[in-house]
Fold each of these.
Amino acid sequence: MEENLNIGTKINGTSSSSNNGEIEKYCFNDLEANCTSDGGFYTWDEIMEYNSIAGSQGICPDDWQIPTHTEWCTMEQYLDPTIVCDDVAWRGTDIGAQLKIGGTSGFNALLTGGRYWDGSFQYNNVYAYFWTSSSSGTAVSRHIVNSQTGVYRANSTKTFGLSVRCVKD
């Protein structure tokens, strides 16, 4: 997908999303205009529609899915062969630069920041955070930052609100 997913109903950053049959999203600083321009932020359970099967469709459109850690890594290694998939650290030599707006990959990651577990919004224009559908207690995510040329593979608390890109089945 060429842009961050923006689907669902906005809830306030201090509210918790719930398994209520509605897709709930967060917008930076609780402003719908930020979701319109940059996409929504979602908790991991919300993107997965409250199941834990890696590679699930989740909240993605039909014929699309939430990418797994392995699918992210395949893309990363294609763009930057120095990536070691399971390192939980900053990885690669120039993958972050390639994935940012104006990079050579076409991914054009927006540095939208995210919603933290306490309901605050942070790091707009500094970080881009993306969920994967992979999890073992915490969920695997990717972090891209304006001052780094690598990509960070992290194990993130599932109550964070992060961006989502879907992949075609």
Note: The first helix runs from residue 32 to 38.
Amino acid sequence: MKDIIIQGKKVNYGLTPFIIAEGGVNHNSDLDLAIKLIDAAAEAGADAIKFQTWRAEQLATKAGKMADYQKRNIGKEESQFDMLKKLELKEKWYPQLIKRAKEKNIILLSTPHGGFEAIDFMERYNFPAFKIASGDITNLPFLEYAAKFKKPMLISTGMSNLEEVKEAIETVKNAGNDQILIFHCTTDYPLALENVNLRAIDTFKKELGVLIGYSDHTLGREVPIMAAALGACMIEKHFTLDRTMKGPDHVASMEPRDFKKMVEALKRVPIIMGSGAKKALKPELQYMNVARKSIVAARDIKKGEKFNKENLAIKRPGTGLSPKYFNQVLGKTAKTDIHKNALLPARESWRFIKRAKRV
């Protein structure tokens, strides 16, 4: 699969997963808190910190209602528009956020909400990729417009079916952009384990022909690690300084200390998964002769005596004739005396091995 490059970092299968700390709206429309999130994400080892870019007027009508999880997590109900207005990341803050991310050597990403204007705004600041939210998976004009900038398209798929995902991919490719990564995710915050459906990663890998990642909304770090083991090459996880803060996403997010532990575990996944080739590995070689077995004499065997199940045995060490030749040895004649528990002599062994190879 072709690499996706995000600000100099390669994303592909077999590499350490690219890890996004999803700051989302957990800045609570507070510049200082947004900067602290950047600092904490960098300290935790994330490759990128991601926020969301919108103006409420471009994103929702005043008639729109809050999602159930938003009402549940905030503890009250108001119009979606009013909630979004309170959580805007102010456009005038972006230069400071970009500067801080550069200082901390972490990539700054954002999800453009609110139509074409949000994409244009992000393009003015030269964001290295577009992260597309699940709610825009069927917003084909939006996908097409973003794709034309020829930057990586990181597309979440919550609430969608396979045909909708394929249609989104086709739209991006028809716009001349093949830098596509699809996130498997389920839209709920926090997400119950029975609704994770990680096997969808396998389905995506078989059906889509693009890189696959996983955007996580569960509590804890076990599911992202499992997703990486299934091959997800990009992991996104909601990130907060304090899960008890007020806001719709804090409660379903991970705090810095646990996020750092997750990052450390994710970096070990490709090491543990290995190459996939089944062969004796270097540390095993020292044990082969000790643990494997050879054909030996079960008692003293005289020259000219035929080998049988009574005068042969299979024992350690594994430095002699392999037990796989046992049935071929039976009925053959010993060419020399062999003492009890001795390995079959080299001359006997090579004779059977050569005959086996000819067969």
Note: Residues 256-273 form the longest helix (18 residues).
Amino acid sequence: MTLKAVTLKEIERIFSVTDALGISREALVIPLRPESPGRLRLIKDGILEIVLDRDQDFEQWLTGLEPAIRALMDPPEPD
């Protein structure tokens, strides 16, 4: 199913993940227009941008959000 717009329903579900990780809602940018592909990245001043993927099932995408945020925020130490 193609996601045409990000609604409060999706944002609240994202907040449930980011809140559990201790990330302030003020440190998030969630554009209301999904893209393909979606992306997750740190932008200026440590702000986390979360762009939903319009072509991926939201529930499936959401299950991968926490590990993706952890990988981005806590990159592995070099050997």
Note: The beta strands are 28-29, 39-43, 47-51.
Amino acid sequence: MISKLWGGRFTQPTDKFVEEFTASIGFEQRLGSYDIQGSKAHAEMLGRQGIISVAEAQQIIAGLDEILSDIEAGKMEFSVALEDIHMNIEAQLIERIGAVGGKLHTGRSRNDQVAVDIRLYLRDEIDTILDYLKKMEAALIQQAEKNLDIIMPGYTHLQTAQPVLYSHHMLAYREMISRDSSRLSDLRARFNLMPLGAGALAGTTFPIDREWTAEKLGFDGVTRNSLDSVSDRDFAIEFCSFAGILMMHLSRLSEELILWSSADFNFIELSDAFCTGSSIMPQKKNPDVPELVRGKTGRVYGNLMSLLTLMKSLPLAYNKDMQEDKEPLFDTIDTIKGSLKIFAAMVVEMKVKGDNMRVAAARGFSTATDVADYCVRKGLPFRQAHEVVGKTVRYCVETGKDIPELSLDEFRQFSELIEEDIYASVTLEASVNARKATGGTAREAVERELARLKSS
């Protein structure tokens, strides 16, 4: 039987099922290198402060390096009986270097130890995810750059509204991803404070140097309240909130790609590498990647709700409930990394069917607002112009004509202000390119925006 490192208080062994039920080592193994990173800095600080000897600190650090090598090589055997990553590593350390290994835990608790581990881990994952977000932004910009001449229908209520550049549509998603990057960068700056030294909840009686350890581990500073230090999981909740918003954005784009790749829209073609077929219908090409990303959005939302529910009634300070923070966080990290990685690659390879988009943009009276704007420029108040064009559209519906197909006499049934120059205002190009203000869909505006993005 493995001896518990905390077992001095107890006279009976832990029930085997209780060990299995309460153990977290099954999912905490990914924290191994971070636990050792934090422990090495802590050991060095103990030696610098004279709390243990420098020789003892060096011996502990050497032992931790050996354990890290075994973890990286897949040779480390983890024990459920030792509960978590911290106890497994500490037990291995004592087994390898003897009783001096037990001095590592001086001036700290598993409570502040896990808090620093998870921050170190999340910080690295955030840096990786920020890189994935940059690649996603680049993929959207690349799509916009190479398809500047393509006009598509813009929609509200999924009804044809006004023509827009496909490039403008892609850059709308780039705006969303940019906000996601900004949110994540804000979070990284906010949570990059070191909780180590908070002890179990009240700090420590030993003369530790928290600021030195924080600098050693790359933190911007130290947390300021020991109770909050060990009980704070705001950063995990905030990360999952960021992830939920990100997945919502990817899900919206997924929905459009799914629609656009259908035979009914036929706006795009996804690469075969990102689609699958049907076991019974040989003609099918299913957009599985965007469908799965759309589906995985729900699990990320669920992880956020799990963490919020987990923390909502916990008294200060640490409670065992908080062990349940890791699986939702880990799953969220894995999900968004996979989604971003595959989505960026899929967007880069996506082929746009510009002719089909143009045909669709010409349907549904998409230039009706341009007729209203034309009438306003001729001196008609907008509300009256709106009524004029509404009647014009009703006439088009009844006669089966589109707005550009009307004769001048037909136009003038509804307003004598309309003249021959109306035809220059109701083409798709005229409608798009008239919207030149910053943020508009005109090619001129989109090119300015692309230039700004490339120079920033």
Note: The radius of gyration is 31 Å.
